[in-house]
Inverse folding.
């Protein structure tokens, strides 16, 4: 679970990014983008103004422009690096957990099949499959596709691993004898 300082920092990063994209951005628009109250956005913006990260110019009674200061641009660059490092670390750790799960499943089953979706998690799982197979010097984990869909029936204790896959697709595998179906999202 992310701590409040991290969330606070992510919100500041998003505010700075939005200001770079649109100097006319309103606090209400920022509120919707961040999923936080307008008053919380106001507190953050005022804090960032006091820290010299952003500058506010009153254009009319109802309109203001925001602009990153040179200090704000440097801080945004630092936050970008920090943001990327944190997210890369989370992706790396998730990929390693997936490989550990594959290792345990490899001990229990004679074949591991993977259904990949079309989202970012599928990409991470695909990388984990490739790395796991290269470490094993064989294809212990097989990605299912239309061509090899029936291969799953040729094993005594196969396991099908999926994550966020359409339930309709899973139904066709539920009838396969001795097939253990594992939702990877529940194990991470």
């Amino acid at each position: 679970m992310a701590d409040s300082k991290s969330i606070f920092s992510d919100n500041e990063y998003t505010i700075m990014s939005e200001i770079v994209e649109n100097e006319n951005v309103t606090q209400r628009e920022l509120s919707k983008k961040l999923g936080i109250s307008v008053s919380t956005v106001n507190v953050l913006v005022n804090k960032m103004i006091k820290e010299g990260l952003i500058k506010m110019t009153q254009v009319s009674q109802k309109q203001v422009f925001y602009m990153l200061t040179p200090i704000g641009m440097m801080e945004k660059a630092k936050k970008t690096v920090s943001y990327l490092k944190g997210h890369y670390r989370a992706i790396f750790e998730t990929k390693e957990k997936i490989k550990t799960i594959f290792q345990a499943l490899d001990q229990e089953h004679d074949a591991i099949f993977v259904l990949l979706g079309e989202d970012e998690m599928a990409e991470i799982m695909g990388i984990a499959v490739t790395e796991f197979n290269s470490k094993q010097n064989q294809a212990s984990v097989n990605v299912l596709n239309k061509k090899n869909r029936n291969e799953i029936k040729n094993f005594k204790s196969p396991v099908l691993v999926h994550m966020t896959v359409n339930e309709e697709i899973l139904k066709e595998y539920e009838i396969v004898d001795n097939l253990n179906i594992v939702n990877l999202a529940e194990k991470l």
Remarks:
- Residues 134 and 140 are 9 Å apart (CA to CA).
- Helices lie at 4-21, 27-34, 38-50, 70-108, 120-136, 167-171, 184-187.
- The chain has a mean pLDDT of 88.
